[in-house]
Amino acid sequence: MRKWLQKGRLLSLIAMLAILLTGCGDPTLSTLVPQGDVADKQFQLMLISISIMILVLVVVFVLYFFVLIKFRKKAGDDSMPEQVEGNHMLEILWTAIPILLLIILAVPTVMRTFEFDADAKPSKNELSLKVTGHQYWWEFEYPKEELITSQELVLPVDTKVHVELTTADVIHSFWIPSLAGKTDTNPGDGSKNYMWFDTGSKEAVYKGKCAELCGASHALMDFKVKVVSKEEYKAWVSGFKKASASTGDADGQKVFEKNCLSCHAVGEKGGNTGPNLTGFGEKEKIAGIMDHSKANLKKWIKDPQEYKPGNEMPKLPLSDEEVDAVADYLMELKLQ
Description:
Its main location: membrane. By secondary structure, this protein is of the alpha+beta class.
C-alpha cells in the first residue's frame, strides 16, 4: 500500500510540474503566438484539429462513464444481461460521424495547402530571399538588394517574403515558428524548395530554428529575424552596402585578413564558405547562440568545436594576443 502511495505522490508531482512547465517558453519561438497572416491561418488549422480531438475525447469519456454506471453489476443480481448483437443505426452513426469530422478538417487544410504553395518566381511586390542551410548556420541572400548576410535576417514590416531554400550539405529545415511553418532544404544538384510568409504589422525580433536533425549541433542552429520599419530596413540595406572591412584596429585587421578572410567576407572582401561578418559588431549573438561580447567571441575563436561540435570552422593556431586583436577588430565592425 505504501508503494502505491509513493507512486501516486510521484505521479502527482510530475503532473504538477508538467502544468507549470506549460507556462514556460519563449513567445517569439511559439506557433501559439502567431504573427502575420500565414502564421495566423496555420494556427486556425491547429485550433480546428484540436477542437475535433477534444470533442471526440469528451464524447468517448461520457459514453464510457454512462455505460460504466448504468450497466454496472448490482449486489445480489446474478442474472445474465440481455445479449445484443449489432445496431444498424449506431453502426451508421459511428461510421458517418468520423467521415464528417475528417471532411471538416480536410477542406480548410487542402485550401490552405494550395494557398501557401509558393511559385518558383516571386511577384514584383514580394521581397525575394534565398536561404542556404549550412552545418550549423544560415546564409541569407537578398538578390534585389545584392547583399548576403548570415544568422540575422532583417525584414521590413507588412511585407510578403518569397523564400528560395537550398542546402550546402545535408537536409535542414527552415522554421520561424511565429511567422510560418517549416520547409526543408534538400541536398542534390539544383534541388530547391519554395515558401512564402508575411512579416506582420509590428516591429519585433523572432527566433528561428533548424527543424530537421542535421548533425551533432542541430539544436544550436539558431537564427534571429528582425522585423523593422520600412525606413529602418532601407537604412540597413544602405549601411550594409557601404560597410567597409577597415576599422581603427589595424593590427586586428591584418591578423583577420591573413587567417580568416579566405572563408569570411567583410564588405566586398573575402570568401563565402563561412558566415558573412559584415556589421558583426552590431549583431545580437555570436554563432547564433552566445551572448555578443568580446569575452565570448574570444572563446569562440579559440575553440569553436567546444561550443558547436561538428561545425566547419577550424581551430586556428593563433596566440592569445592575436585572438584578442581579432576580437577587437570584429567588435568594431559597424554598418555605416
